[in-house]
Protein 1
Amino acid sequence: QVHLVESGGGLVQPGGSLRLSCGSVELSLDYYAIGWVRQVPGKEREGVASINSDGSTWVAPSVSDRFTISRDNAKNTAFLQMDRLESEDTGVYYCAAGPLALWLRRIYNGMNYWGKGTHITVSS
């Protein structure tokens, strides 16, 4: 289906910050919940954070004190601010858009749209 465009990944030292962006120039995301799912080596796929069309958010407890999700519908874009990154955050982060119900049920395979993923490496 339609690809979302992700940016903001890269190599960062422990304690550093990155800001991920996810958007589309092909369709409006106004009515979708947008979020990120990550694949960390050696761990199962996990939801990181999501934000609904009304602005309500969810952030995984493991990163809730360090990550913040937001969206700007005027820019048709969602953002994931990641602070105080740790080596355990290393992995591939995929943004996705779909019904809030799927995010809440952790049914990521049912998301309508996906980005190609962005690689994040936290290392000194």
Protein 2
Amino acid sequence: QVQLVESGGGLVQAGVSLRLSCSASGRTFRSYGMGWFRQAPEKEREFVAAISPSGGNLYYADSVKGRFTISRDNAKNTVYLQMNSLKPEDTANYYCAAAGTGLALKNYRADYWGQGTQVTVSS
């Protein structure tokens, strides 16, 4: 099994940057695609970004393309989400997820979920 723990969320002003981190336990991190989802109150969970096990394939939601960057450091069992030019509509609880491929995550198929980290962007 894989345990995922997110960190790096907070309250920021529009236009600034945050970097979220997701630390994974277990020996199989390098075998998993990793991704990020977000969910605002009373909204459905939304795919944000995903990365393939080796980092060669990246997937982004149109709403964040050009502003967010997903990356991973397999030696540290960590995946990151660099968020630039944050907007109030980015406000949500951000969840880290793992699956067999990055493409699976893009299609909302995840095997493991973190508990989330809150990102709040003020106008």
